[in-house]
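Input.
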Amino acid sequence: MVAVSVISWIYADIEITTQDPWNEVMRMVTGMVTPDFLETDNLIAAIVNTIAFAILGVAFSNILGFFLALAFHIRLVRAGCAFIRAIHELFWALIFLQVFGLSALTGILALAIPYSGIFAKVYAEILEEADTTSLKTISQSTSRISVFVFVRLPDAWVHFKTYSLYRLECGLRSSAILGFVGLPTLGFHLETAFAEGKYSEAFAILIIFFLIIATIRKWGRAKLVPFYIVVSLLVIPWGLSDISITNVVRFFTEDIVPHPLHVSGTIDMKAFGSFIDWITTLFLNQALPGIFATIILTQIALIGAGALTLIFFPLISPKFFGFFGRTVGHIFLVITRSTPEYILALIFLLIWGPSMLPAVIALALHNGAIIGHLMGRHTESMILRPDAPKGINLYAYDILPKIYRQFLAFLFYRWEVIMRETAILGILGITTLGFYIDSAFADLRYDRAMLLIIITAILNLSIDVMSRTIRARLRLRTRVTLL
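Output.
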């Protein structure tokens, strides 16, 4: 993997194109230390909308994902879940924008659909790996429903709640960046502030977002979930009156139909030949360059995330630092992993200019912080022998060899996630598949956009299959409930 990353680096567009990046850095630092919380209009509404979108999207996907998990042994269900989760939330949002406009339905569905596939996969794995000892004490005449409800489900319930809380944190990040496509969340104001160089306003919004994420375990209690759902349903700006049934029907019956087939109106040999020419041109001119750039960026970011993980995990480990050091490390990792890659890439893009460099650093930092946090927590329960070495020897010859397999498991687990994020960073102008998808939507060429999104999903599924194969061959087990 390192060798592939080195080769990818040779072909990557890694350069700094801004004339004076340090000037931009100093302006950002000034904005960071002088946040302006009063500059943003409708800030309270944006905060409420961000939380409401996340809660409703995660709630609906949790319910649907649970029932899909019960049927996850069916191949068609597994394939369907894999496909919908392979498409990033922002791509789903771009699709539903054309159907439902800037309504709450667009934001909720953009989160609920891919998250349903994720919940189904994780819940199915939790049920599969649950302790089955108690099943031996059940009478054979007991119904399957009773066994599931009273034996299997209670054992898995605590893992369901833990993962749901983590997925709510992910939902908050995704809800925020939905603002980058126009929905009224924090991301809308954040993009405007960065674009206009109002860094005091931008960092004030980020600080608020970090506080929401950091306090999620305080306010995100299971008993309050029904109350939050009801409040979210009441306060969210639905805007359903703006939805046109005519537009919905036209989108699915005309807009996404490939242009040659739509013009012809029939599927004959001439129309089929035009369709082949159309798809070949699109593949060679857009899909192939986009796939190449997406893979290159993914492989570099993957190894970068792995390298940073090995640096980050000691920051919160009691085996290396005391209370003060770990507190500083926790704050750093919480901020880094809580900031969506899209926002990190936008910040670095303003500093270094348009190239793959901002995306590489953003993906490596975010994913390195996530895995580093998990690995640091993993070391807390480790017991060292009485004559254990100190410092770098403890790190290199005692701790790291013990956690290295777990490190590889987490890294390969994040591979497909990094690929998904790489694709959507094309919306910022980096020539991954997302760049061509966003351009197709901007040109109202929805047929091209849908085909490119399908290609993106296939690429993500391929990486997921390779990742699972490698983990199986290396006998690496991943605690998916922690991810």
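The longest helix spans residues 269-312.
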